[in-house]
UniProtKB/TrEMBL annotation:
PROSITE patterns listed in its UniProt record: TONB_DEPENDENT_REC_3 (PS52016)
Record-given protein name: TonB-linked SusC/RagA family outer membrane protein
PANTHER family to which the protein is assigned, alphabetical: HEMOGLOBIN AND HEMOGLOBIN-HAPTOGLOBIN-BINDING PROTEIN 1-RELATED, TONB-DEPENDENT OUTER MEMBRANE RECEPTOR
Membership in a protein family: Belongs to the TonB-dependent receptor family.
Native source organism of the sequence: Pedobacter metabolipauper
Signal peptide start and end residues: 1-31
NCBIfam families with a match to the protein in the record: OMP_RagA_SusC, SusC_RagA_signa
GO cellular component terms attached to this protein's record: cell outer membrane
Keywords assigned by UniProt, alphabetized: Cell outer membrane, Membrane, Signal, Transmembrane, Transmembrane beta strand, Transport
A GO molecular-function annotation: siderophore uptake transmembrane transporter activity
One Pfam family in the UniProt entry: Plug
Length: 998
């Protein structure tokens, strides 16, 4: 690891020298062409430089902008007036004297949130003019947290946005859900747009975006905000804007961190003594005679020697993570640039898991003429997930007396020989696994501003292209218990393009303000893949590099295409900044729909806003700084199903016939040529407020979504040859309440304390399925209930010795689970004794962030909670494996002596398939960050622009009643799911620094 770190640091140093050379050259050019009489630094109240602030000489009308370190240079003579301004700060005017250096401190504007410009989709607006539900992710969450994916910064910090980390596999992406689940089978994930061009549906993900490159994140939640994206906005929209250059001398920034990963909670298996006792109790409970102290002969040598193996310790390691980011930005009044490079290296806590990411980004803006601006946003990201992986699930099943190694140093195949149900959990480390993706993304724009009588009219062309190749290869050989060797190769590529023609017109007529936006766009995605496989290799030397050497060959290929054409119009009207109106309509045509439909859908929305605080009767109400009421209503569509589901297709299968391998045809997909849009109608009411000189501010929102024509997979009788078919049937309802509260509790000069609280509740339910008023028991869909529920028997305890089972469950015996006889027929069956035990999504979520500043020292503590969710706990049941495997130490079992009323006897077989529904609610200390910002005086001595050092911890502690690895994880039992995602929550400790050079 030290060699890798040294290599990475060498690369960073080389880049740093290169950028320094470029900066020095550019700086000389800048100095030669921009001579100035007056220089200085523009600071905020915390002595932090303000980049991008405007400095205007009122006498000469010359304007300049502060660089990334807050420094400016402008020609000014004695007696002339300079105006210093920046969004969110009070403008200051200074009369120049005889000085040659002038440092300026700008005070924060009490109404800065109202004047803040936010991205709203195909444009931007002042926050005070926004009529839809648009939430900006706090800048501190984006700039002060060392995360590998920006969704990790959002988790728990934005009301109505539920981010869950079901697996902590390095390089994995959390799942996101905005305002609950509207659809049952169709995709419910949000649409992601980066710098105005879609990232979703291009093959890539937010894992390809370096968090250090992100300047702002806005989340669009209601129909008024999302309807502008039509079908793509049906589940909410995440808008990401990356950093761009500003006029001034080049600014070189380095941000880096390194730290450790460890399992946040270990579900420890039983030690040797407890394992032996469990085996003895199992034999006793099942009426068997014990002939040896351990289940298998292969365990006896270690038992006799008194040596044990900690299999979880053998399968895990110290996780290490490091990230290095280097950027240079700057420009002139006509050319601005931002260039960055990033290297991330994460060594997982489970052996074999790792993730490496190398990213490059180049953002460029050029004012070609007074009316033409060109720009690009280019990035390349290479992701590496290579490596065979240890199996944590098997590690928890191993006997502590199992044999880890053979005499020759190789891993034993069956550590508990002759038991062959469980193989060595480390066998995956002997396999050759390759998994890599590359995202090559090129976006460009051209913007024309029309002069004269057409002032306010702009045309913008956005063009984006993405090439996303993937490659996976694997080889499993003799050391991994494959005696003939098996190899596979998978290659795929996704090619996507987006073209957007955007026409905007802005006009002010006295107190009337108009903004009009029109759009015509086209999107296309083409995907193709090829696979090759073989088995029967003479040796394991070449692995997957020579698949042709295998005796048995397999191959396959696939190709598909997706297209979307759209037209959109949006009108925003404001009267005297008091009365606001937004009207939007979008028409989308998608290739996923059937031949018997038009493929097009129209999605309108309307929103009104009333800035109550701008009314004349509020002028004397000093208590209230801002009060705005918002109401919106609109319709969005959802097309989030796979392509070609409207076409009936057949599959192929090989079968032997007369000694020859013959290809046959079997039923594949049953198409529905009448398939069309799933539609959601949304009502949203919001109130934004700020009181007590904006010491307390926030918003309260209530919404209701009604979805109809669900893209539902309805089951079919198996006699048809098909399992299911997509159809437009069913309805759902979704409603909720969201609260965001920001307070400045203490606002002193040296000491400040701020708090942010978010709260969101959501209730979804199925209101109709097949039009017959009946539930779908097979799919666990119930009318009037949430979409995802736990439907099972109601456990009331454990049957104890001497209790009479005849009147409730005649098949039970002491140590069996006790269930409620709901239908009173004196037996427990699936027909009438199951009920809805809870929902799998939280009923409410919340978060609280406390940030304390003392001079240059800052401490931020974020606590997240999710309450009211129920999940089946696979750690509490192992099917018929009881007695043959190890079990967690904290999960007990019933014996006549301890008479447990929560855990069954070891002899209990769970023939009813009870899932052990458990309360999965939790409260988590999500992250704590302590940072120190060096003062300008110290920076001047160090000849630096800025310097911040910090220490951060994530997932420090979880408060929960859940018994298992973690309530948020989706842990798969053996024989189902993907065991490679059985990677529990990790706790991370980080040390980092952010530095910029003058």
């Amino acid at each position: 690891m030290n060699k890798k770190l040294l290599s990475a640091l060498r690369c960073v140093l080389a880049l740093l020298i290169l950028f320094l050379f470029a900066a020095a050259s550019t700086g000389q050019l800048y100095a030669q062409t921009n001579k100035a009489d007056l220089t200085g630094v523009i600071l905020d109240a915390k002595n932090i430089p303000i980049p991008g602030a405007t400095v205007k000489n009122e006498s000469t009308a010359k304007v300049t902008v502060s660089d990334g370190n807050g420094r400016y240079r402008i020609a000014a003579s004695n007696g002339e007036k300079l105006v210093f301004s920046f969004v969110g700060y009070t403008t200051k005017t200074i009369t120049v004297g005889t000085q040659t250096q002038l440092n300026i401190m700008l005070a924060e504007d009490a109404d800065k949130n109202l004047n803040e410009v936010v991205v709203v989709g195909y444009g931007s607006q002042k926050r005070s003019d926004v009529t839809g539900s648009v939430v900006s992710v706090p800048k501190s969450r984006l700039s002060q947290l060392p995360v590998t994916n920006v969704l990790q910064s959002i988790e728990g910090a934005v009301a109505g946005v539920n981010i869950t980390t079901t697996s902590s596999v390095p390089g994995s992406q959390p799942a996101a859900l905005i305002r609950g689940q509207n659809s049952i089978n169709a995709n419910s994930g949000p649409y992601v747009v980066v710098d105005g061009v879609p990232l979703s549906k291009t093959g890539g993900s937010l894992n390809d975006i370096n968090p250090n490159d992100i300047a702002s994140v806005e989340i669009l939640k209601d129909a008024s905000a999302t309807a502008i994206y039509g079908t793509n906005g049906s589940n909410g929209v995440i808008l990401i804007t990356t950093k761009r250059g500003t006029s001034g001398k080049p600014v070189i920034r380095y941000s880096g961190y390194a730290g450790t990963d460890e399992l946040a909670h270990i579900l420890e298996p039983r030690n040797g003594e407890a394992y032996v006792q469990k085996y003895a109790d199992y034999l006793k409970q099942t009426g068997q005679t014990q002939t040896r102290p351990v289940p298998n002969i292969g365990e006896l040598p270690a038992y006799t020697a008194g040596t044990t193996t900690d299999w979880v310790k053998e399968a895990t390691q110290q996780g290490i993570i490091q990230d290095h980011n280097l950027s240079v930005s700057g420009g002139s009044p006509d050319v601005n640039y931002f260039i960055s490079g990033d290297y991330l290296d994460q060594k997982g806590v489970i052996k074999g898991y790792q993730f490496k990411r190398i990213g490059l980004r180049s953002n460029l803006d050029v004012n070609v003429t007074s009316f033409l601006t060109l720009g690009t946003s280019l990035f390349l990201t290479s992701n590496n997930y290579d490596g065979g992986r240890a199996n944590l699930l098997l590690a928890t099943a191993m006997s502590p007396y199992g044999q880890l190694y053979n005499a020759n140093g190789t891993y034993t195949i069956y550590p508990m020989n002759p038991e062959q149900l469980y193989v060595n959990p480390l066998l995956g480390l002997t396999t050759n696994q390759l998994s890599r993706t590359t995202n090559i993304n090129g976006n460009g724009y051209a913007e024309i501003k029309f002069p004269g009588v057409l002032t306010g009219l702009k045309y913008r062309l956005n063009a984006g292209y993405t090439f996303f190749p993937e490659r996976r290869a694997s080889y499993t050989g003799r050391l991994a218990n494959d005696m003939i060797g098996t190899a596979s190769n998978f290659n795929a590529s996704t090619n996507s393009y987006t073209l957007e023609n955007i026409l905007t017109y802005s006009k002010d007529i006295e107190k009337h303000h108009f903004d009009f936006t029109a759009l015509y766009s086209a999107q296309e995605r083409k995907y193709s893949s090829t696979t090759a496989g073989a088995s029967g290799f003479i040796n394991d030397e070449l692995g997957s590099d020579n698949i042709g050497a295998g005796a048995t060959q397999t191959s396959g290929s696939y190709r598909d295409r997706y297209g979307l054409n759209s037209q959109m119009g949006r009108l925003f009207y404001s009267y005297d900044s008091r009365y606001l109106l937004t009207l939007t309509a979008r028409r989308d045509g998608s290739s996923v729909f059937g031949a018997n439909t038009s493929k097009y859908g129209v999605f309108p929305s309307a929103a009104i806003g009333w800035n109550i605080s701008n009314e004349s009767f509020m002028k004397n109400v000093s208590l209230v700084n801002n009060l705005k009421l918002r109401v919106s209503y609109g319709k969005t569509g959802n097309e989030a199903i796979p392509v070609y589901r409207t076409i009936t297709t057949d599959g192929t299968a090989r079968s032997p016939f007369n000694g020859i391998s013959t290809i046959g045809v079997l039923a594949g997909n049953l198409g529905n040529t009448s398939l069309q849009w799933e539609t959601t109608k949304t009502t949203n009411i919001g109130l934004d407020f700020a009181v007590l000189n904006s010491r307390i501010s926030g918003s309260v929102e209530a919404y209701q979504n009604k979805t109809s024509g669900l893209l539902l997979l309805r089951s079919l009788p198996i006699i048809t040859g098909y399992n299911n078919v997509y159809d437009n049937i069913g309805k759902t309802s979704n409603r909720g309440l969201e609260v965001t509260l920001n307070t400045r509790n203490v606002d002193g000069t040296d000491f400040r304390w701020e708090t942010m609280i978010v709260f969101a509740t959501n209730r979804n339910k199925i209101t109709d399925l097949y039009g017959d008023g009946r539930d779908d028991l097979g799919n666990r869909w119930f009318l009037g209930r949430p979409i995802s529920v736990i439907y099972d028997y109601k456990m009331t305890g454990i049957w104890q010795t001497g209790e009479d089972v005849s009147t409730q469950d005649p098949t039970a015996r002491p140590g069996s689970l006790k269930f409620a006889d709901l239908n009173g027929d004196q037996k427990i069956t699936g027909d009438g004794d199951r009920m809805i035990l809870g929902q799998t999504t939280p009923k409410w979520t919340g978060g609280i962030t406390n940030t304390v500043h003392y001079k240059n020292l800052n401490l931020s503590v974020f606590i997240q909670t999710a309450q009211g969710m129920t999940k089946n706990n696979v750690d509490l049941t192992y099917g018929d494996e009881t007695g043959r495997r190890n079990t967690p130490a904290e999960i007990g079992y019933w014996t006549p002596e301890n008479s447990s009323n929560t855990r069954p006897a070891l002899s209990y077989n769970n023939t009813l398939g009870y899932g052990y529904a458990s309360n999965a609610s939790y409260t988590r200390i999500k992250d704590v960050t302590l940072s120190y910002v060096f003062s300008q005086t110290m920076l001047d001595k160090l000849h630096l622009g800025s310097l911040t050092v910090y220490a951060s911890g994530r997932n420090l502690h979880t408060f929960t009643d859940w018994v298992g690895w973690d309530p948020e994880n989706n842990y798969s039992p053996r024989g189902s799911g993907d065991w490679t995602n059985n990677y529990p929550l990790t706790r991370t400790f980080i040390l980092g620094l952010n530095i910029s050079l003058r």
